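Chapter summary example.
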Amino acid sequence: MPALEPAEPKGLIEMAKFVFIYRPPKNYAPGSDDATAAWMTWFGALGANIVDPGDQVFERTAVGGVVADSDLGGYSVITADDLASARELANGCPGLQEGFIVEVGKLAERS
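The structure predicted for these 111 residues follows.
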């Protein structure tokens, strides 16, 4: 008797994963209560799109070139339908009000 292959789940669509790279301005001082609350509110609004909320970066170095006016500040991994949808989600980042740059990149899909 041949081995049975597991059935593919029907109706499930796996969304693509994207990384948000947060780049605060060079002299940014993190940690105000208002800023923390704004970030937590935004993460709450992202809801099920968050794969990994990520973390802040406190020490950094670079090999090759660097972005002159900003530092690596942190990252998050989210899901979205496409790059345009991920960019739209990134538009809500509270760091943008404080001069952050948010880079959005689609992660490679593993097969």
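To summarize the output: The beta strands are 16-23, 50-56, 74-80, 101-106.
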